[in-house]
Write a structure and sequence with these properties.
Blueprint: H1 14-18, H2 21-36, H3 56-66, H4 72-87, H5 93-96, E1 101-106, E2 111-116, E3 121-126, H6 129-142, E4 153-158, E5 161-166, E6 176-180, H7 189-194, H8 199-211, E7 216-220, H9 226-234, E8 243-247, E9 259-263, H10 277-285, E10 291-294, H11 301-309, E11 317-321, H12 328-338, H13 343-353, E12 356-363, E13 366-375, E14 387-394, E15 397-400, H14 403-417, H15 422-427
Parallel strand pairs: 7-11, 7-12, 8-9, 8-10, 10-11
Antiparallel strand pairs: 1-2, 1-6, 2-3, 4-5, 5-6, 12-13, 13-14, 14-15
Amino acid sequence: MSRGWSPEPPPGAGRRLATGTSAGRQRARRWLAGRLADPARHQDRGAAPRPDTVPPELAAEAVRRHLPVTTPQEASTQMTALTDDLIGLGPLAAPARGPGVTDVLVDGAGTIWTDGLDGLRDTGRCLPADDARLLAVRLLAQGGRRLDEGQPFGDAQVTGARVHAILPPLASGGTQISVRLAAPEPPRLEDLARRWPHGTQWLAALRQLLHTRANLLISGATGSGKTTLLSAVLSEVPADERIITVEDTRELRPRHGHVVSLQARSGNSEGAGTVELSELVRQALRMRPDRLVVGECRGAEVADFLAAMNTGHRGAAGTLHANSASDVPARLQAMGALAGLGSEALALQASSAVDAVLHLERTDAGRHPVELAVVDRDTSRPGTLRVLPALSLVGTALTAGPGQGVLDGLSAADVHRDTGSRRSRGRHAIGA
């Protein structure tokens, strides 16, 4: 899988490692893969599963047997490379370890790019077409997904990263691979807010929404930080509440002691076994959620999600793609149409289910909130859905809008109704 690329050797070891290591690395990889698949290693666990870890002692033995290393540093480099090739990101692992890197991308020509604090950068490294395809197939298979002519695209979770791949001819040129990296440790909400313009005000508003169990949608473009922020918000949910997350590919990792993660599943080569997000939302409702979270609303599952928020499951949250907070109603209506909901029915559902929309953008200042809006519940306009801006970042100024009073009134009403035990507030909500 890495014939066209090999990890950079430590300083001074280039010539020693450059000659004769390719064949040795292949032998070491085959030996290590055979040991990991040895049924004797899994006799207490039934059939040998797909390995998700490589014991260091096995990696060290593979290097000792098959690779010409002379220093502990060289041995460590080769052990890391073997582990990356078997269960990690392979030739993308080294770029992924760069400081501030959030994404690693392979384009149709095989060029490896990174994105992060320094923006989009060409690493100067390239994967041959065959290696890129083999890598993509292996990564998705490792995450339990198939990638072939019958299913030429897909997502998978690999070593904490979300991997997306799409094969030609759907992708022009060669195989396209996109890797979204997770932070080593999920950031805390207050740590994120320190880097935001007017972070103190945004932090106070988010904690107010969390405390009053408002149903929150986080909108923004790809890469604007929606999932990162949602994980941080969920990390501040009280410890005695049960969070159930529903995602197409698992990305949410809140710092919380009771999180149940459900992940959708694609079908096999015959198309059987598919489990959609909408089905998982229905299953989650039977699992006693205190907080129901849909990682990303993108289709018909929005109908079940809105229905859940209308059945007393307060404190729900989710993300969706939108250009602005004011565009969220149109996005919800478009997704509702996929579930067979008419515009008026969707508006009635959403206006009573969603409390607030937080919109994020990626600017020169980083990824941060730019607008907080509340759903307008004007009874004189039944069957319509619109939002009112409560806080808006205009230039460098944070201004309050007409929705600020609605937000304050909603919060006051919720606090007034929250008179039971925390357990009852978790299961039942406003009007219980």
